[in-house]
Amino acid sequence: MEAGRQENQDDVTRFWREEREDGAVYSAYLKKVTYRSQAQLEDEHEREFSHLMWETQKIRVIKAGTLEKLVESLSTVRGELDSTYVNIFLATYRTFATPQQVLKLLIDRYQMLKLCCEDDRTELNELQLKTIKSVISVWLDTYPEDFREPPNYPCLHTLEKFSLHFLPDSDLAGRARHRIERLTKDHSGADANEIEFRFSICEEVDHMIDNEYHKPLTFNDISSHTFAQQLTHRDAELFRKVVPHHCLGAVWARRGKKGGKEAASVLATIEQFNRVSLRVIATILKTRDHKTSQRAKIVQKWIHIAQELRELKNFSSLKAIISGLQSHPVYRLRRTWSSLPKDTMVLFEELSEIFSGENNQLNSRELLMKEATAKFPDLDSQNKTLKRRNMQKRQSWIDNGIVQGTVPYLGTFLTDLTMIDTANPDMTEEGLINFEKHRKEFEVLAQLKLLQSAAQIYNFKEDTHFWIWFDSVRVYNDNESHELSCAIEPPMEGSAKIKKKSASLGHKPAKFDSSKFGLFACGLEDRSSLSSIPDTITASLAGPLMSHSSSTSSVISSDSDTSPSPYRSCDTYVIRVSLEPSDQASTHIYKSIMLCNTDHTNTVIQKVLEKYSLEGQPEDYCLLQILPDGGELLIPERSNVFYALNSSIDLKFVVRTRAEHETLTLRRKGKRRGKKLSL
Prior knowledge:
The structure is a single chain. With 679 residues, this protein is of the alpha+beta class. It folds into 3 domains: 13-186, Son of sevenless (SoS) protein Chain: S domain 1 (Son of sevenless (SoS) protein, Chain S, domain 1, Up-down Bundle); 219-516, Ras guanine-nucleotide exchange factors catalytic domain (Son of Sevenless (SoS) protein, Chain S, domain 2), CATH 1.10.840; 572-678, Ubiquitin-like (UB roll) (Roll). It has helices at 38-43, 67-72, 83-92, 99-119, 123-142, 154-166, 172-196, 200-210, 224-241, 249-252, 264-285, 292-311, 315-326, 328-331, 334-338, 342-354, 362-371, 384-400, 410-423, 435-454, 464-472, 478-488, 495-505, 535-542, 601-611, 641-644, 658-678; strands spanning 13-21, 24-34, 54-65, 433-434, 572-579, 591-596, 621-626, 632-634, 652-657. The strands form 2 sheets. It has a 5-stranded mixed β-sheet with strand order 6-5-9-7-8. Helix 6 (154-166) packs antiparallel against helix 7, helix 11 (264-285) packs antiparallel against helix 12 and helix 12 packs across helix 16. The N and C termini lie far apart (98 Å). 34% of the residues are buried.
C-alpha cells in the first residue's frame, strides 16, 4: 500500500529507548502517524480498512556523537532536512568546531554520496545530496559572519570551487564569488577609513563651524521623555546587532582564550550599559556645592527617566539606571534619599523590585516573557495616584494605536547560557560531543532572537545634541566616587549608627541586595583574556561598576563579585571558587564548578585544582565558604559539601593550603587579642 503519509494533531510521540552505534548515541522515539486520510479511504471505497489508517514510525534524535556523526545527522535517515536540528546545529556548533571543519565534512559527505549515486543511483542518495545543498545554502544566508575571514576568505573560496565542480547548475558558486568581492571591497574600505581617521577631528570642527551654533545642553534641559527615547534608540540598535551565538557560555566566558573579539556584539551592549550607570552616578555626585533638595531633584529625575524606560519596555537602560542609583556612593546619601517625595520612593521601590535577585530574578523573567511581544507594557502600582496615571496612559496608548518594542536586559540571557555551559559537560564519558547541551542553549538563543524581532518596532530618531551632552559628562572611578560621596555626606562613626540611621529612613535603599549592583558578573573564568577589552566593559564583567579607568590586568576584588549563583537545582549547585595564593591573599579570581549532592570536601578541592591546572593533593588544602560579613565557614574535611554549605547566601568559596589557613587564623587571633588589650 502506498505510504502517502500525513501527520495530524492526534500524532503521539513517546520515548522508546536509547540506541548506540559507533561514534553516536541516539534517543529513539515511537511516533504514531497517519498514512491514509478518511477522505482518501471513502474515495477508494475502503472504509472497511479504517483501522489501518495509522502506523508507528521510529524517529531517532542524536544525543551525542563525533563531529562527523553530528554533520551526518543534518539529514534524517530518510534523507530529509531536519529543520529543527539544522537550526540548533548552526546556532551552536562554534563551541565545538570551526566553520572550516564543518564545511569540509559537508563537502566530503556530498562527494561520497555522489560517488555512491554514480555506482548505484537511489532515491535516498539523491534526497541526501539535495539536503546537503540546502544546508549549505541556509548556512550561507543565515550566518554570513561565519564566512567573513579576511583577507583570504578560505571558506568562501572552498565553497566556490566545490560548487563549480559538483553543482554547476546551482547559484552557490555565484553567491560565494559575490560574497568574496563584497567582503574584499568592505575590508579595503575599512583600511581606508583607518588611514583617513587622523583628519576626522579637523573635519568635525569644520562641520561645527558650518552648522548653526547650538547652546550645549545640561542635564536639566533634557526632558525625561527625550532621555528615555534616546537611550532606547541606542539600546535597541545595539541589541538588534547582537549575534546570538556570541552569547553562548563558551564564547562569552572566553574559555578558548581567543580574546574579546568573538563577543564584540555583546561587549558593545555592556559598554553602553556601563556608560549609562556611570553617568547616573556622576550627575548626582558632581553636585557637591548644591543643596540637598537640589541633589534630590536630580535623583528624582533619574527615577522618572527610569519610569519612562519602563513604559518603553527598555529593560536594559532601566536596569542600568537602577544599578547606578543603588551603587554605594549614591545609596549612602541618606539625606538626599530622605528628601524625595513619598510617591517617588514608591515608584523607585517598584522599579527596583523588577530586578530582584530572588528566585533567579523571577520577577524580571516573568515580566519579560509577559511583555516581550505585547503592544504596550502592563503597568501597575501600589500608589493610587501612580495607578490612576498608569491607567490613563494605557488608555491613551490604546486610543492612539501606540505599539512599543522591547529591549531586554541581556545579562539574563548571558547568565542562563553561562550556567548551562557550566552545568553540562562538553563531552560525554565516551568522548562524544554532548549535543543535548546545545539543545538547551538553543532554547535560550531562540528567545533572544524573538526579542530581537520585537526591538525592530521602535522608530526613534537620533538626537545629536543629546549624545554630545551624554558623551561630555565626566565620569568617575570607584575611588573618586567614594571621595565625592563622602564630601557630600561625611561617613558616620560606627556601623551601628549607620544601620540605625538607614533603618530610620524607612525606604527601599536600606534593603537593597547586592546582586542588583553588578552587570554580567557570573561565568567569567579567565581574567587574563580581558587585556584587550575596554576598561568600562571590564568593570561590568568584574561586578558593580568598577573603576572605568582602572587597569584591566588587575584582579577582581572579593567585594566586587557579589551576585548570587543563578543556577541551583534539587541535586546540584553551581558554585564559584577562588584559589587564594599566598602573595595575593586579598584577591579573588572566581571560577565556576558544578557541585553535586554526592561531592565531599576532597572531591570539590580536586575539581578546583583541576580547574586551575594545578597539581597537588586535596588533603593539603582546605575549603571555606565566604560569608556576607567577611567571615569564612570552614567546610570539614570529610563532610558532604552539598549539605554542609550555607545555601541561603552567595555560593562563593575559597581554597587555600592548610599551612596558609593556619597562619592566617593565628594572625587574625593576634589582631583580635591586640584590640582587646588596647581597650
